[in-house]
Amino acid sequence: MSDTLIGQDSVVTIHYTLTNDEGKVLDSSNGRAPLAYLQGHGNIVSGLEKELAGKAVGAKLSVDVPASEGYGERTGPGPQQVKKTEFGKDADKLREGMPFQAESSDGNVVTLWVAKIEGAWVHIDTNHPLAGQTLHFDVEIVDIRAATAEELAHGHVHGPHGHNH
Ligand code: ZN
């Protein structure tokens, strides 16, 4: 049905381009398959999800998302330097901008990001690489459908543009 609007639990397929304040393209689905996500499950940043609610297939939007509704404000002391050797055999897999899991001193699993790799040192940060930034999205809605029961149970989309498992 082409009159379907995006609501809670819609499976939404979009083409998107993400730019920063300077107009630099940070991510884009151009030349790739579009992105499918499950509305209302935190699959995409909250500021964009909010603006997509109620829209129809074919709609084109430009959305400015403040850091607080994107990847959060920057917090904490900033990147800390750790010797690459501390990562053991995983050291060669490290890439700037990639997330990894670590155990904090109180035993909780936390997500950290590789901010920079500099010789024998890795700069690790508790902030997402895009934290503190206003995000500018240009979005075109390609498809909207209802989620299956299995997708709702998993909290993400299955099929060609979603998870394959
Ligand atoms: Zn799944």
Description:
By secondary structure, the chain is mainly beta. Helix content is 8%, strand content 36%. Strands 1, 2, 3, 4 and 9 form a 5-stranded antiparallel sheet that branches. Strands 5-8-7-6 form a 4-stranded antiparallel sheet, with no helix packed on it. The model has no long low-confidence stretch (mean pLDDT 94). The structure holds zinc ion (ZN). The site of zinc ion has 5 residues, from loops.
Tell me the layout of helices and strands.
Layout: E1 10-19, E2 25-28, E3 35-38, H1 46-52, E4 60-65, E5 80-83, E6 99-103, E7 109-118, E8 121-125, E9 135-146, H2 149-154
This protein binds zinc ion.
- Name every ligand kind in the structure: zinc ion
Spell out the helices and strands N to C: EEEHEEEEEEH
Overall body shape: globular
Mean pLDDT: 94
Number of helices: 2
| First-residue to last-residue Cα separation | 27 Å
Helix amount? under 10%
Which short descriptors sum up this protein?
binds zinc ion; 165 residues; single chain; 9 strands; four-stranded antiparallel sheet; mainly beta
Can you summarize this structure?
The two termini are 27 Å apart. The protein is mainly beta and 165 residues long. The chain is built from two helices and nine strands, in the order βββαββββββα.
